[in-house]
Design brief:
Layout: H1 2-29, H2 34-47, H3 52-60, H4 67-74, H5 81-88, H6 91-103, H7 105-115, H8 119-130, E1 139-140, H9 141-150, H10 155-171, E2 180-181, H11 194-200, H12 216-229, E3 239-242, E4 257-258, H13 259-266, H14 278-281, E5 284-290, E6 293-297, H15 299-307, H16 311-324
Helix pairs in contact: 5-16, 6-8, 7-12, 8-12, 8-16, 9-10, 10-11, 11-12, 15-16
């Protein structure tokens, strides 16, 4: 009898401990009010040494808004590659891209020679990211990043970017109100996140400013510098569209293959029947397919995906670059 009594006491004790732990877990995971979190963020910025007068301007712009979380969720809306591509590329954008290559050809040639990134990729990214500056976004970057750091799927990323934006405002000639961009905090005509700006933006025209908001030389050179720093290989393109061979479906979206082995085994050919170079044949490729279209992609495709981790995005950049290549 005593054994059962002791067992009941032990079980009751364990149940109490479990309830206490559960209550503690709930309490420590409840979201704190935005204003309290904002004050903690301010104090963290003070500890990191940012100027108090500047922080006063910055934090005056920060207001809680559910719109940013809604945009973050909306970003992953399902769509086909064709829908994505046609939303980004049309005849007008192709014409504008070709016009930019002609207009800026001299400086683009200098940039290409320095960074070894072909001009058509620079122009393609500029076109897709901001339509050559016509669509840079009108959100206050500090407010967007603070809201996403408070409540989004990637809080740690956006908090890091928030402090990077404070560094930009502390070192560059731009005010918090003028630092505008997308809902996700990307800024400038090349839509760099603040940490990307700090790492890769360049002053190409020598005026002691890294101006990706207004200066075309700096914008194009910063795009090229970013790709170059990610180990762009100027001897190969992003990839090629190839003819539809059903046997390739089983290889799609898997490991990398040596191009010459695929050529020998499956007789793959480019969609336009042009030959692969001997250099290309010695490189590893990935096969991807969307809607009965097949592509082989080289390392440069992966470089573009570091810019934006989306195969749709990288394909769109590459296909637009093909259409505007001189």
């Amino acid at each position: 009898m005593n054994i059962y009594k002791n067992l009941i006491i032990i079980l009751s004790f364990l149940l109490i401990i479990s309830c206490v732990k559960q209550q503690h877990h709930v309490a420590t995971n409840q979201d704190i009010p935005f204003n309290i979190w904002k004050e903690e963020l301010y104090q963290e910025a003070i500890i990191q040494g940012f100027n108090k007068a500047l922080l006063t301007q910055i934090f005056a712009l920060i207001q809680k808004s559910p719109a940013y979380l809604a945009q973050d969720i909306k970003q992953f809306k399902k769509q086909t590659f064709s829908e994505y591509y046609l939303n980004a590329v049309n005849n007008l954008r192709i014409k504008k891209a070709k016009d930019r290559i002609k207009k800026h050809n001299k400086i683009l040639t200098q940039i290409e020679q320095k960074y070894l990134v072909p001009k058509e990729y620079i122009i393609s990214l500029w076109a897709i990211e901001s339509d050559f500056g016509d669509n840079q976004g009108n959100y206050h970057v500090v407010n967007a990043l603070a809201n996403l750091a408070f409540n989004s799927r990637r809080k740690a990323l956006f908090k890091k970017e928030f402090f990077a934006s404070l560094t930009i405002l502390s070192t560059e000639n731009i005010t918090p109100k003028d630092l505008k961009g997308s809902w996700a905090g990307a800024t400038g005509q090349c839509q760099f996140l603040p940490s990307t700006y700090l790492a890769y933006a360049v002053d190409f025209n020598g005026d002691n400013k890294k101006d990706i908001w207004h200066n075309k030389d700096d914008i194009m050179a910063s795009i090229a510098n970013y790709l170059s720093s990610l180990k762009w290989d100027h001897n190969i393109p992003w990839g090629y569209e190839i003819k539809n061979i059903p046997n390739l479906t089983k290889l799609a979206n898997k490991r990398k293959y040596l191009l010459k082995d695929l050529k020998a085994k499956y007789q793959i050919d480019k969609i336009d029947n042009a030959a692969f170079s001997s250099y290309e044949l010695e490189k590893k490729v990935t096969i991807i397919t969307y809607e009965d279209r097949f592509f082989v992609t080289f390392k440069n495709f992966d470089v573009i995906k570091i810019w934006n981790n989306s195969s749709y995005f990288a394909l769109t950049v590459g296909l637009l670059a093909n259409q505007i290549k001189e």
